[in-house]
Amino acid sequence: MKKAILLVLTFLSATTFAQEVINLNAVELAYSSGNYAKTLEEANKVISSQPDNPETLSTAYAFAGLACEGNKDYSTALINYKKAVELKVPRLDIYQKYAALSKEQKDWKNYEFALIEECNAFPDFCVDVKPMLASHYMKMKNYSSLSQTCTELLRWYPDDMKFNYYKAVALENQDSIEAAKDYYKKALSVDPDDLYANRAYGIMLYKQATAIYNEETKKYNNKKGADRIDYHNFTVALEKPKAMYREAEPYLVKAYNMKPNKNLSSIISNLYKRLGESDKAAVYSK
Questions:
Q1: In terms of pTM, does the model score above 0.70?
Q2: Cα Rg of the chain (Å, integer)
Q3: How many CB atoms lie within 10 A of CB 97?
């Protein structure tokens, strides 16, 4: 009796699988003929039948996505691509199409998800996907994820200027200033003329110097009955931020010469004023 039941179940399972294959073949045939409406119709039939095999279901969603994209119904295409990816569709091209369409539509949530899942599903392609993720995190100002991703990338590409620069920016925005300095220096040792690294590093040093300068000035101004000794101590205390301003100077000037802008000229002008170089300050205050 048990053997008979097992045989029936095996037969039913084989029949079901065969029918799923037939249904998927109809989807693929419609797509290969360029008939997107028929592709979507056949794909939806498979989806509504709720096949037992997740690969069958994920493939049906993938073709539904392809058909919708072919018909320029991009929002529905993204929904179907996401379903396919969530079900681990075994097709690299679907992850790539999902990511590409998401980026084209500026749907950054879907774009990030597509890249992460592509890397999870196809680890050998992480070396190509991670740089795209890093650029995405930089754009979104997701500095925690950017830092983590750059740590991975720098294991593969330790001398890459961009990834060192990204890592520096991530650390700076997580208040790890001293660690950020090392990565800015590394980035600039690779490409001393990079506009963004020069500007970012110079501004970071300028801000650090300004915080100390302002704090020392505030302490001195709040001192009642300050005498010559107090003033002497104040001027000595200002030597530290002035040295930091001097360190920031070449990076800021180089960045300004490459791409002048009002914000940078204001920063450089103020820097020279605090260094007591009014003639240079005047050049940038125009």
A1: yes
A2: 30
A3: 19
